[in-house]
């Protein structure tokens, strides 16, 4: 089961929101940085205009309020200066300065942590601004009131309503940048609510406003768009936005903690895309930024993400040790964060089937988030782990209840990938209980949703190519018009020259005009013929493209059908095995399933690939070994080492070679390490010279008996491998020394490459 966690805990999200607000409100940030408090103090002491003096006092007060560090003496200075500004504003009856002083007073209480007094003060501020018809200031009041609510799920709706009121007032007042900031905040809230479609719409509106204003610091918007696309499982779009966030941040020299968030989020996209190396590369960059800022929360967050990668790579002990090590080295006081780490440990122990360790964490998670994880911002991820836990512990009634709820939530989010994983577990649970009709139904749904994810991705690629094609066509049309314009300019120049040269001779002018007319007529006729031929060629090209597209589609459909039929046969064999008690028959069925899966992988890759003729054998061997490891995970303690080069073979050679690897590795797992004996299996596939390749499957197990005769053996596996080697026109040999080594050498078929 694959699992991960949100890029940041609730508290970390709050910090990211604050950092993003600072980045987006570029004018105010720069103003804060450019303020010279000593210069302001001099202006205040020398000012004779009491209205201007009140404004300067408010600026200085806000400087101390926003000063880094949040020291008590700075807040005291802000409160004192604001009080002086309030007295002057009341004396001069300046309504705007008085309202700003009231707003600052409420914000100072908020910074001191006195929310009970800040709430009524902020409502009084809003009432004052509305009474005096100060539209933009009223919007600021509603925005500041929304900041008094934390990001607990029960506060989402109140915060959204307040921000929507602020947005309406900013639109009315024409405050464009404030509109963009509110739209960004709303998009972030809808992302936290698990409503990515609404979030994306709002974030795109925010992005458009900032871009129209030529505002450069929009990396936070791109990062939020990436997070929303992750929720929809649209990882292609999520990666595009993530890379845009990174490029923008580097362009504006943003080295703040927000850069750590951006790197962490890109790593998460690569994690879901199963690009493990790229994911770790970005998480390492995120960790480096977090450590430079000495922020324990960010450090722990990225470290936890890296631990999930160790879990995916089945290095469970290292993952658990890493979580505990960072917990000790970088302590933080955050209950929400602690629960997130408990979630990782719970999921890890569930995978390991160490239920005595997993159960306490399950109880803690239920107590904190609710029976169905309803009090968690990322309910879907938590509920998925609950489904898997109940399946592993064979608590099928609880598993079915949570699987139904999980499916409805994933359907609401439009996440077909999560739905496919859920129906796969559902299928396994039904099969384990003998509910074969239900099992087939859920297996069909699993295939439907997994295929939908793939087809959706292909559709997006096609649309992208279509846009690119249309753009190229427009560029060509522009180029053609430019060339025509140049020809017209040349023609006009020639006409002018001829006019001056032959002005003195009417006869010559008439003859020249006649020649030009005749030439023009011939040229027009020739152009019409050329245009007709060009249209005919274009039509033929379109027909050829259509035929080629239909051919490729048919080939893909054939591979798809073959793959599906093999999967159905595997499922039928699995069902049949439930009615058999004969161990030899069960073993024969299992061997047949493995062989069919080896062939199914090839057709699956061809269906998903744009290259319909060859298979990447390094990918294929990795997937095949992963499947075999899963089949024997609970029975054997065997380490697999893969040493393969990126080699492409055609189907005629890929199928026998895949079956050879399947037979050799399965035989090794079954017989090389009897009992609980551990060991190592090496699978190597490399080019030796020219078009010659060598496949080696070796182990350090018990080896073959001393009297073993390859030519006299009745072993089906050995005979099958020798026969398949003959299909490859290769050589088959064995070395029985401290284990068994199987060596197959053959020449690669280059007929397809040469033909291409």
Instruction: Write down the Rg.
Output: 35 Å
Beta strand count = 7
Proportion in β-strands: 5-15%
Anisotropy-based shape = flat
Low-confidence residue ranges? 1-33, 465-470
CATH superfamily of the domain at 615-755: Histidine kinase-like ATPase, C-terminal domain
| Classification by helices and strands | alpha+beta
Task: Classify the fold: give the CATH topology of the domain at 615-755.
Answer: Heat Shock Protein 90
Describe the largest sheet: 5 strands, mixed
**Which percent range fits the helix content?**
over 70%
Largest beta sheet: strand ordering: 2-4-5-7-6
Give the overall pLDDT as a whole number: 80
From the structure above, extract its key features.
29 helices, 7 strands, two-stranded antiparallel sheet, Serine Threonine Protein Phosphatase 5, Tetratricopeptide repeat, 756 residues
Describe the structure.
It is a single chain. With 756 residues, this protein is an alpha+beta fold. Helix content is 75%, strand content 6%. It is built from 29 helices and 7 strands. A 5-stranded mixed sheet has the order 2-4-5-7-6. It has a two-stranded antiparallel ribbon with strand order 1-3. The two termini are 41 Å apart. Mean pLDDT is 80; it is low at 1-33 and 465-470.
């Amino acid at each position: 089961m694959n699992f991960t966690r949100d890029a940041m805990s609730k508290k970390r999200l709050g910090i990211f929101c604050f950092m993003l607000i600072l980045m987006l409100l570029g004018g105010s940030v720069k103003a804060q940085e450019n303020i010279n408090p000593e210069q302001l103090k001099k202006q205040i002491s020398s000012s004779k205009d009491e209205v201007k003096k009140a404004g300067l006092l408010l600026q200085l007060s806000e400087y101390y309020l926003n000063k880094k560090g949040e020291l008590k003496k700075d807040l005291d200075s802000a409160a004192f200066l604001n009080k002086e500004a309030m007295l002057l504003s009341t004396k001069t009856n300046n309504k705007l300065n008085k309202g700003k002083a009231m707003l600052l007073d409420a914000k100072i209480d908020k910074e001191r942590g006195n929310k009970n007094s800040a709430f009524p003060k902020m409502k009084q501020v809003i009432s004052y601004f509305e009474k005096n018809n100060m539209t933009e200031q009223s919007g600021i009041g509603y925005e500041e009131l929304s900041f008094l609510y934390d990001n607990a799920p029960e506060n989402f709706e109140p915060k959204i309503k307040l921000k929507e009121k602020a947005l309406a007032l900013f639109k009315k007042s024409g405050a464009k940048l404030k509109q963009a900031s509110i739209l960004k905040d709303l998009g972030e809230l809808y992302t936290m609510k698990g409503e990515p479609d609404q979030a994306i719409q709002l974030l795109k509106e925010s992005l458009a406003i900032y871009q129209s204003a030529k505002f450069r610091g929009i990396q936070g918007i791109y990062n939020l768009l990436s997070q929303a696309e992750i929720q929809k499982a649209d990882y292609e779009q999520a990666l595009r936005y993530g890379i845009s966030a990174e490029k923008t941040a580097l362009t504006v020299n943003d080295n703040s903690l927000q850069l750590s968030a951006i790197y962490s989020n890109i790593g998460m996209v690569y994690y879901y895309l199963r690009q493990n190396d790229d994911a770790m590369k970005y998480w390492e960059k995120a960790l480096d930024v977090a450590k430079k800022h000495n922020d324990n929360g960010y450090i722990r967050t990225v470290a936890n993400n890296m631990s999930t990668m160790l879990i995916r790579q089945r290095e469970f002990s290292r993952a658990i040790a890493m979580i505990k090590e960072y917990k000790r080295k970088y302590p933080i006081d955050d209950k929400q964060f602690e629960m997130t780490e408990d979630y990782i440990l719970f999921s890890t122990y569930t995978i390991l089937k160490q239920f005595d360790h997993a159960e306490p964490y399950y109880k803690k998670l239920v107590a904190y988030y609710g029976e169905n994880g309803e009090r968690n911002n990322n309910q879907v991820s938590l509920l998925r782990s609950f489904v898997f836990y109940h399946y592993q512990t064979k608590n099928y009634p609880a598993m079915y209840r949570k699987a139904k709820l999980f499916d409805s939530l994933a359907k609401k989010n439009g996440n077909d990938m999560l739905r496919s994983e859920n129906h796969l577990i559902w299928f396994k649970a039904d099969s384990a209980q003998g509910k074969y009709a239900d099992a087939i139904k859920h297996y069909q749904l699993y295939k439907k949703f997994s295929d939908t994810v793939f087809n959706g991705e292909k559709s997006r690629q096609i649309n992208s190519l279509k846009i690119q094609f249309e753009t190229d066509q427009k560029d060509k049309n522009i180029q053609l018009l430019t060339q025509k314009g140049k020809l017209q300019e040349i023609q006009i120049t020639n006409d002018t020259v001829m006019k001056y040269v032959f002005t003195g001779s009417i006869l010559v002018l008439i003859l020249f005009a006649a020649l030009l007319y005749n030439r023009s007529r011939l040229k027009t006729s020739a152009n019409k013929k050329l245009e007709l031929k060009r249209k005919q060629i274009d039509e033929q090209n379109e027909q050829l493209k259509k035929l080629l597209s239909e051919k490729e589609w048919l080939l893909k459909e054939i591979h798809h059908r073959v793959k599906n039929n093999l999967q159905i046969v595997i499922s039928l064999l699995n069902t049949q095995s439930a009615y058999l008690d004969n161990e030899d028959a069960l073993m024969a069925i299992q061997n047949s399933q493995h062989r069919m899966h080896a062939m199914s992988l090839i057709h699956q890759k061809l269906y998903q690939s744009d290259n319909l003729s060859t298979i990447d054998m390094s990918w294929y061997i990795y997937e095949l070994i992963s499947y075999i490891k899963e089949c024997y995970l609970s029975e054997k303690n065997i380490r697999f080492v893969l040493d393969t080069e990126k080699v492409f073979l055609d189907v005629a050679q890929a199928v026998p070679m895949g079956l050879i690897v399947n037979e050799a590795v399965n035989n090794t797992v079954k017989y090389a390490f009897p009992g609980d004996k551990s060991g190592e299996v090496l699978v190597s596939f490399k080019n030796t010279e020219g078009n010659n390749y060598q496949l080696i499957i070796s182990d350090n197990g018990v080896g073959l008996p001393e009297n073993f005769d390859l030519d006299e053996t009745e072993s089906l596996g050995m005979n099958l491998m020798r026969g398949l080697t003959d299909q490859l026109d290769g050589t088959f040999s064995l070395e029985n020394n401290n284990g068994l080594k199987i060596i197959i050498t053959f020449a690669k078929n280059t007929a397809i490459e040469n033909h291409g």
